[in-house]
Amino acid sequence: MKKQTISFLLASLLFCAPLSGCGANDESGDLTEDIPARPVQPADPSPEEPPLLEEDPPIEETPPVAEDPPATEPPPVVETPPVIETPPVIETPKNEAKYIRILYTGLNIRSGPATSNSSYGTLEEGTCYPYLGSKDGWYKTTYKGKTAYVSSNESYTALLTMQKADDKVEAVIEKGLECLGVKYVYGAVRLHDGKGNLNKSFTKTKFDCSSLIQYVFYYGADVLLDVTTRTQVVQGKKVARADLRRGDCIYFTNSSRVNKTGIERVGHVALYLGDNYILHTASDYCKIEKISQTRWNYYIETRRFI
User: Fold this and answer.
1) Residue 81: other Cβ atoms inside 10 A
2) Alpha-carbon torsion 135, 139, 141, 147, what sign?
3) Do residues 288 and 279 make contact, with C-beta atoms less than 8 angstroms apart?
4) How far apart are CA 289 and CA 276, in angstroms?
5) CA nearest to 102, candidates 248, 290, 291
6) What is the pLDDT of residue 235?
């Protein structure tokens, strides 16, 4: 036992000696061995800087900045005045002819649409004139080949319509409308001799019934009619009264010929427009009017030339 105790003590002494004081109260020594310092490795050599160029590269000049143009003020907004809608113009259908019927004898027909315009003359109740439009209380028409105006007051005038015929018939009627208001002269000089040879002394300022019909058919339809009612009535095609239509010519007798016989009874001719209206000239001036019962009593026959 004593021998083992000595061996233990010797072993303890051997273990503690190299530690230079391992007692708990030894403050001057480190508890651990100094760790040898690692050798400091030299820093990686920095990469070589590129050699300096002999001349610096030229510096690109930045293009000058264009100055914005001075701001211009927008023009002031001009306000558009409101559009005033005008009532639509009522147009006459292409297949209709419109006329102004006179309701008052003595109504002035004027050169313009106002009472301050000069008067071409006065009109007769029951006569009619072509409707060409309206303006400011006036109807536009034609009179003696001139543009004219009559009041559209319903006390003085009214409108009526008729169905049109083909273009050739309407061209004949149109020539007749140009003659409205032209005075009647018995035996007026004819346009031509019945064969198309024009008379140099002809004038459009006067007509009788047969010279008027000859004139409108020559210029409207290129039809040659003879010089009197009694020679015209045998031309063209005879048409029954029941088949009467716009553009036909109606032949009548009159008070001075009613008692004659045969062709000598014929004394008047008129251009039929329709709805019992005719365009003709008889004793006063060229006009459109209704066929009176007295005139129907003088009826002889109807001829169609186109």
Assistant:
1) 6
2) negative
3) yes
4) 8
5) 290
6) 98
Q: Are 304 and 239 in contact (CB under 8 A)?
A: yes
Q: Which residues contact 94 (CB under 8 A, 6 or more apart)?
A: 164
Give the model confidence (pLDDT) of 173-213 as tens digits: 999 999 999 999 999 999 999 999 999 999 999 999 999 99
Distance from C-alpha of 110 to C-alpha of 267, rounded to nearest angstrom: 34
Q: Give the CA dihedral 93, 281, 110, 107, nearest 10 degrees.
A: -100
Domain ranges across the chain: 96-163, 167-304
SS3 271: strand
Instruction: Look at the chain and count its residues.
Output: 306
CATH number assigned to the domain covering 167-304: 3.90.1720.10
Answer yes or no: CATH 3.40.720.10 is held by domain 96-163: no
User: Residues 256-300: pLDDT tens digits?
Assistant: 999 999 999 999 999 999 999 999 999 999 999 999 999 999 999
What is the residue-wise DSSP string for 100-138?
EEE-STTEEEESSSSTTSPEEEEE-TT-EEE--EEETTE
Helices (H), the chain: 2-16, 167-177, 209-221, 229-232, 293-296
On whether the CB atoms of residues 204 and 145 are closer than 8 A, the answer is: yes
Q: Model confidence over 112-163: pLDDT tens digits?
A: 999 999 999 999 999 999 999 999 999 999 999 999 999 999 999 999 999 9
pTM: 0.71
Same fold across 96-163 and 167-304: no
What are the phi and psi torsion angles at 225 (to 5°)? -110, 155
Q: E strands of the chain, at which residues?
A: 96-102, 107-110, 119-123, 128-130, 133-135, 138-143, 146-151, 157-163, 183-184, 206-207, 237-239, 249-252, 268-274, 277-281, 286-290, 299-304
Phi first, then psi: give them for residue 134, nearest 5 degrees.
-140, 155
